[in-house]
Amino acid sequence: MIEINHLYKEYGKDVQALNDINLVIDRGEFVFIVGTSGAGKSTLLRMMIRESLPTKGSIKIFGRDITRLKNREVPYLRRNIGVVFQDFRLLNDRNVYENVAFTLRVIGSPTKEIRKRVPHALELVRLKDKAYKKPDQLSGGEQQRVCVARALVNRPAVLLADEPTGNLDPGTSMEIMNLLHDINIRGATVIVATHAKEVVDHFQKRVVVLEDGRLISDQERGVYFNAH
After folding, report:
1. Where does residue 67 rank: exposed (0-12), middle (13-18), buried (19+ CB within 10 A)?
2. Separation in Å, CA 33 to CA 191, 196, 217, 222
3. CB-based contact 147:89 (threshold 8 Å)
4. Cα(43)–Cα(216) distance, rounded to whole angstroms?
C-alpha cells in the first residue's frame, strides 16, 4: 500500500532531515515510527500527505507516486488519509460536531451523509454526549478524541498520527492509543510517530526506528529502541 524508495529531504546544504529511507507498509498494518526529536518522524509523515516534497526519491501510496501528483490531485489523495496532530488543530469557534463535519463538508459530502457519519464517528470515540461543546470546554484527552473522530469520519484507508499522545497524561495517552488500535482492527492502516516508550512497548507492533534522518531498525512485534 505504501512504498517509500530512496527518500531524501534536505533543508539547504547543511541539514539532511531524511537520508535514503526505504520502507514498505502493507494494507492493514499498525506501525510505530520512533526516534528522538529531530530524527525525521514528522518530516516523513508530512511527505505521506504531500504537505512537503522530498529532495529525491519516491513515495507510492495506492500504487501512485504521490511526489508526482499535480496540485489539483492532492485533495483527492488526502480523502483517503486521516491525520491526527499533536496540537489538535481544532476550530475553536465551532463545536465538536462541526469540527468533525468540517472534513466532510470540505469534500462536498451531502448533508444526509454528514448527519449519518458524524454521530457514528463521535460514538466510536465516546464523545456523542459532547457533540455541542466547544473545544475549550473539553479536556486535552477529549480534544484529541475529537481529532481522532475527524480523522476517521471519512473512513480513510490510512490513518497517520504525529505524536498523538505528546500533550497527554499516561492514562489518557493509553485511551487514545487504544482508539487507534481499534481503528486498525476495523481495517485501516495506522502509522504512529511517537517517542512514548511505554506506549510502544505495550502494543508491541511493528517498530521502525529513525535516527538523524536514517532508518536504523525495522522490527515486527518490536519495542522502543534508542541507539544512545
Report:
1. middle
2. 7, 11, 10, 11
3. yes
4. 16
Residue that the C-alpha cell 481499534 belongs to: 182
> What is the full DSSP assignment across 124-152?
HTT-GGGTT--GGGS-HHHHHHHHHHHHH
Q: Work out the angle between the directed axes of helices 96-106 and 111-124 (0-180°, nearest 10).
A: 130
> DSSP character for 106?
H
User: Grid coordinates standing for 59?
Assistant: 513515495
The Cα–Cα gap between 192 and 89 comes to 17
* DSSP letter, residue 52: S
Distance CA 192, CA 185 (A): 15
**How many angstroms separate the CA atoms of 227 and 36, rounded?**
10
| CA 224 – CA 217 distance, rounded (Å) | 10
- Residue keyed to cell 516523513: 44
The pLDDT score that the predictor gives to residue 55 is 95
pLDDT of residue 225: 67
pTM of the model: 0.91
- pLDDT digit string (tens) for 58-102? 999 999 999 999 999 998 888 899 999 878 889 999 999 999 999
- Ramachandran region, residue 16 (left: φ > 0; alpha: ψ -120 to 50; beta: rest): beta
For 154, phi then psi, to 5°, come to -90, 10
> Grid coordinates representing 45?
509523515
Intervals of the chain under pLDDT 70: 225-228
Question: For residues 214 and 36, what is the distance between their CA atoms, to the nearest angstrom?
Answer: 12
- 61 within 8 A of 48, measured Cβ to Cβ: yes
